[in-house]
Design goal:
The chain contains seven helices and two strands, in the order αααββαααα. It has about 160 residues and is mainly α. It has a domain at about 5-85 and about 125-140: Arc Repressor Mutant, subunit A (Orthogonal Bundle), CATH 1.10.10.10. The protein has a two-stranded antiparallel ribbon with strand order 1-2. The N and C termini lie far apart (about 35 Å). Mean pLDDT is about 90; it is low at about 150-155.
């Protein structure tokens, strides 16, 4: 199984915001810290905001922060919110109309479905807090100051 760049960036964004505690961060802050696309982050921020995973504050002094405590945000929830589907092979994709000749006797489809469920179950065992526990090391790597838990990117 492979997650999309969208999910990867969403997880990075959530980790950054978790390290920032309740302080506001900007898209510029996150993009600069990770060296990733601002355009992608804008889409992700919008989507995660609609789903209540992050809170956005408009205006000149605006930004974003976690929608709830990091210990209450499940990693499986983030991945489910950012992945369109978990079809590992084309015949598992809903609405494609793909019919495989061995489908009536196929064990592979069931095995892949069970593997996907196991993958998500493992992610469900972790919270955002678990991912950011080496906070001092992560803050140093991302250039987040200890005094102000988020960067000071342009708004």
């Amino acid at each position: 199984m492979r997650l999309t760049v969208y999910s990867d960036y969403a997880l990075r964004l959530m980790m950054y915001l978790g390290l920032g505690r309740d302080n506001l961060a900007t898209i510029d802050d996150v993009a600069n810290a990770y060296g990733i696309s601002k355009a992608h982050l804008m889409k992700i921020t919008h989507e995660l905001g609609k789903k209540g995973l992050i809170e956005t504050v408009r205006g000149r002094q605006g930004g974003m922060r976690l929608g709830r405590k990091a210990s209450l945000i499940n990693i499986g929830e983030i991945v489910r919110a950012t992945e369109a589907d978990f079809a590992l092979v084309p015949c598992m994709e809903p609405g494609t109309g793909i019919v495989c000749v061995v489908q009536p006797a196929c064990v592979l489809k069931r095995a892949l479905a069970l593997a996907t469920a196991a993958f998500l179950e493992v992610l469900d065992g972790y919270t955002l807090q678990d991912l950011i526990d080496p906070a001092a090391d992560l803050r140093q790597l991302l250039g987040i100051s200890e005094n102000r838990a988020v960067g000071t990117g342009t708004r």
